[in-house]
């Protein structure tokens, strides 16, 4: 199998959890410290060798395309001011990758969004990265997933152990060992099960490396939970045929799809920054000391 170079980022959601902030701004453009969330995801894709990125957008998502485009007036102003550091950061986002955009149209769920990528992807494997999940740049997840896909010719999904009380928020996988550490064979997938019905505590997180056969399955997949076409339901078809592997991720992941987790993610990433952490840590300690009072 040839090297995988294409990534799909679904970004057509309405972001209702963050209203009114997302009334006019896509949730993917909400800043995490000083970069929009989607830029972290694109950078992760590029770092793994995926330099052809298709973003699935909805209405009022023009800010996404604008962010990855050049702003010559701003570049000129920064250049005139001699602010090389900011100029470099601004130009970085416009030269990251070959980025394309297509509209989802009807908001019919994640499976439908992935299906909209069919013409761009063609007949080759590709990665799907969800913008709500940020993977720490120091913890590589995509590379081992891509390696497993290329090595075995199978679909690969990312899994992470979660507390059983949280499993109802995720798709959940039943698995068997393969003999390779943190690589498992997926035998069953269930979308957002109750804790009592969950086959394990392994949750599907927002990274997938899919074989193109997924498109034919999605074409036939009826609406599932929430009345939407669920990617998990299509993957279940492949799992029943023994065509899905899971890579268990044990690194740092930041969930920006929930307001509280978004705040936690921003604070944690800021603490880890060389330019912010040193001043932020004593302030947080001081804040924490006075919370009870």
TrEMBL record:
Residues 6-267 form the Nucleotidyl transferase domain. The keyword Aminoacyl-tRNA synthetase does not apply. Its EC number is 2.7.7.9. It catalyses: alpha-D-glucose 1-phosphate + UTP + H(+) = UDP-alpha-D-glucose + diphosphate. GO terms for molecular function: UTP:glucose-1-phosphate uridylyltransferase activity. This is UTP--glucose-1-phosphate uridylyltransferase. It holds the Pfam family NTP_transferase. Transmembrane segments: none annotated. The gene is galU. It comes from Agromyces indicus.
